[in-house]
Each structure stands twice: as C-alpha cells, then as structure tokens.
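Sequence only, no structure available. Ideas?
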Amino acid sequence: MDRAELADFLRTRREALQPEDVGLPRTRRRRTGGLRREEVAALSSMSTDYYSRIEQQRGPRPSEQMLAALAQGLRLSLDERDHLFRLAGYGTPKRVSRTDHINPGMQRIFQRMDDSPAQIINHLGETLAQNRLSTLLIGDQSQHTGMARSLAFRWFTDPVERQLFPADDHPGHGRTVTAQLLAAHTRHPDDPRVTGLVEELLNRSEEFADIWRRHPVIGPYCAPKLIEHPRVGLMELHGQSLIDPDQSQILTVFTASPGSESYERLQFLSVLGEQLL
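Reply:
I predicted one. Tokens follow.
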C-alpha cells in the first residue's frame, strides 16, 4: 500500500469535484473549489475522521468495501477506481457498470438544458435525472422502484407506459427498447441486474420473448417520436443522444422543428408549467 500516493490521489479527486457535480449547493462561505473532507465522507457513508486519516496518511489500510464507497462518493470512473484499488494494494475489482450516480461531465451538460425536455438514463433504461420539461412531457420516471425503474420492464408489463404513444407505433417502440436491452446484455454479460431483468421479462412477456428471439439490433440514429400528450395533443419530437464514453449513461434531449405545430405545442407545454406537475 502506497499511503502517500493514495492520500494525494484522493485529495486531487476531492478538489476536482465541484459541489454542483454531486447535487450540493455552492455557498458564499466556500472559499475554494472542490469538496470538503466532510462532504466526501458523507457521500461515501463513512465518518469524517476516518476519511481525514486516509488523506493524512494515518490509520489502517482501507478495506475493499471502503475503497468502493470512496470510488462511488468521489464519482470516480472505472479506470480511476481501479487505480485507487491498486494504490491500496488490492487487485482491481470486477467491472460491473455503476448506474446510480451521474457522471460529472454528463451532469454539467444536463444542467444547461432548460429549454428542451432532457433526461439521463443508464444502460438498464433507468432514469437517473429529468429536467422540468421532461417531467411535464412524459411524467416523473424517477418515482419507480425495483425493476420498474427500467423502461423495458414497464413497457412490457405496465399498459400505462404506452398511453403517451400512438398504438401504431407500439411495435416499433417494443423493438427499440428490446434492442437497447440486448445491447446492454451484450456489453455487460456478467451484470446480474441486466441478466435478472432479461430473465424476468422472458418469463412475464410473450411479446418481449418473441422480439428477443429475433436478436434486434439498432444503430445510434433516433427516429422522430410521436407523443400524444393529454393536455397539448400530438407532437413529433426528435431525440438527440449523447453517450458517455464508457456507454453507461445516455443524455437524451427532445426537440421539435422550429415553426412547426409540434414546436408550438412544446412551448405551450412549458407555459402550462406547474399546472401539470
């Protein structure tokens, strides 16, 4: 274990991570950039004293569980996490994509999206963040729990999920969400959450099983999507997606062609605002 390098690595990552990257306010009393030690400790579910001793090159060697917590709290990439484990004298852990925390770079881009519906999802199709317009457009997708967090699970098990889309488009949507899940299964064959979701859908939905057997594959192009909103009517929206380098998260922004009826309805939806939330 290289205590000096471990301490220095943690310090540099702490100072590089900004409060807004982890959902914390930037107060006027904050004199320097980066996070405080107590903030990293709280994000990593450990005491401030324990974390401080690591940065001060004191205390016992951190366990693998503590290192994993630090990697999560500091929003480390998989490569950074592996480096952290090596500095502490451990082998690198098995790579299973992290899905619960938004990557800082993706978060910064998302926070600038306030005039168009935008959302961030992970490789399981779970919504990690939505802006106000996205919630107005398709509802609050962050309220779901368990497997229902996944769009694929809801699409094939909950009829409510299909109500915003014209019936003629349902087969195409079913193929798309199945292809996205197949891509995740191919990239992460050892991820128990992916395999568990696939097995559950194969058991519960004949429609999913039929599409799955056909091995659907789609490219990055996102075709225009028709959404039948109960308050503003039918809109044709174009989805533009930004994929994180490790392909664990996708930021999707929906837009309408300027001057079109869909554009006017999307603007009206924004004006309705809190009445629909």
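The mean pLDDT is 86.
Hope that gets you unstuck.
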